[in-house]
Amino acid sequence: MIRKIATLILSVIMIFSLVACQNVNTDKETMQNSAANNAEMEGVKNYKIGIVTPTLSTSEDEFRAGAEMAKKYPDIVKHITLPENFNAELETGISQILSLADDPEMKAIIVNSGQSGLLPAFEQIREKRPDIITIATMLDEPELMAKYVDISFATDWIRRGETIPTKAKKMGAKTFIHYSFPTHLAKESVAQRKEMMEKTCEELGLKFVEIITPDPQTGDGPAAMQQFLREDIPRQIAKYGPDTNIFGSNCPMYDVIIDEALKLKFIVAEQCCPTPTQAYPTVMNLEIDTEDLGNYDKINQLIAEKSKEAGMTGRLSGWAMPSQIYVPKFEIELAKYIIENDLEINENILNKKFLDDFSKKVMGVGADFRPLNENTNNYFLLVLESIYY
Q1: Which end of the chain, N or C, is less packed with Cβ atoms under 10 Å?
Q2: What are 140-166's pLDDT values in tens digits?
Q3: Do 48-149+324-364 and 160-321 agree at the fold level?
Q4: Where does the signal peptide begin and end (predicted)?
């Protein structure tokens, strides 16, 4: 009897020991999984995104965009600038970009610059740190950028030859006047946009009128061109009526164009550089505090109020912010989204619908994306959503 009891006790002890060992192993496995998950979460938490822009004096918009995002995400975004004398210090610029890749926490590097020559940095990043996401807006050959940069973006300046007349038509225009001058029309992008404007006007039934102004680059500077506009615009409106859209290919033209529009009530669907800070603040005498210089919602509200006072509601339009501000901010938000969701850069990201929807969600202002061509799926051209004052 005693032997049977001893055997039973021994069996119970063995069962408890076995269960205890299993629990220890299970607890150990759980702890290991938890540690791995914590390490993974810590890796996502402690990551950095590098943004490279020109200096403040070289390109104010791009610089401010980078600085604002570094302020918004101080523990994530690291903002550095290219050399002031970019062309003479190209190698220094490349070295600065590569220095970002030396940081083991760096998960994405973004270069937003209106210059070319920085592609070697991306080639070396791909060799040195293929895990780093690369995004760029530069003036290098798109085909090469598509090869060495994960995702590239550029403003679709030429497509605006279609979108501006289309918008003008919707705003009530019957005539479309295009002001430019010889040295500007010699630029391929300006010439292509003008040709597309003319073609689109024909398709829409808009009368297209081309007028050549004095050339500010070969004559007496902008003053002669502006004086010509001041005298010619009233003649054209008297001839074609206020249901006329006026487009000028050169930024200094708009101090006159916007001013005359407020007087003569014609349509300005978009400036050559469609931003609320081009001409509007000066012509409308907007009082913008220093701290509000980047507050485009407030600036747009002020413009809308002045437009209403002038009886011009719905006759003036543009983009809600400069694309040079929009694009760097959007690129940082996109990189942040990819990293934090541990996503692959595949057709789910390189997708017009996704980019259109994501841009609206994170920026508040939507963009209309399209691939560069049917053979390039990681280089996108974009135009921004319009705002009507």
Answers
A1: N
A2: 999 999 999 999 999 999 999 999 999
A3: yes
A4: 1-22
3-state SS track over the chain: CHHHHHHHHHHHHHHHHHHHHHHHHHHHHHHHHHHHHHHHHHHHHCCEEEEEECCCCCCHHHHHHHHHHHHHCCCCEEEEECCCCCHHHHHHHHHHHHHHCCCCCEEEEEEECCCCCCHHHHHHHHHHCCCCEEEEECCCCHHHHHHHCCEEEEECCCCHHHHHHHHHHHCCCCEEEEEECHHHHCCHHHHHHHHHHHHHHHHHCCEEEEEECCCCCCCCCHHHHHHHHHHHHHHHHHHHCCCEEEEECCHHHHHHHHHHHHHHCCEECCCCCCCCCCCHHHHCCCCCCHHHCCCHHHHHHHHHHHHHHCCCCCCEEEECCCHHHHHHHHHHHHHHHHHHCCCCCCCCCCCHHHHHHHHHHHHCCCEEEEEEECCEEEEEEEEECEEEC
The answer for residues whose C-beta is within 8 angstroms of residue 138's C-beta and 6 or more apart is: 111, 112, 113, 114, 115, 116, 118, 119, 145, 152
| Of residues 171, 248, 159, the one with CA closest to residue 195 | 159
CATH topology (fold) of 160-321: Rossmann fold (3.40.50)
Tokens found for residue 150: 């994960």
Read off the pTM. 0.85
Domain 48-149+324-364 = CATH 3.40.50.11400 = yes
Domain regions of the chain by residue span = 48-149+324-364, 160-321
- Model confidence pLDDT, tens digit, residues 340-367: 999 999 999 999 999 999 999 999 999 9
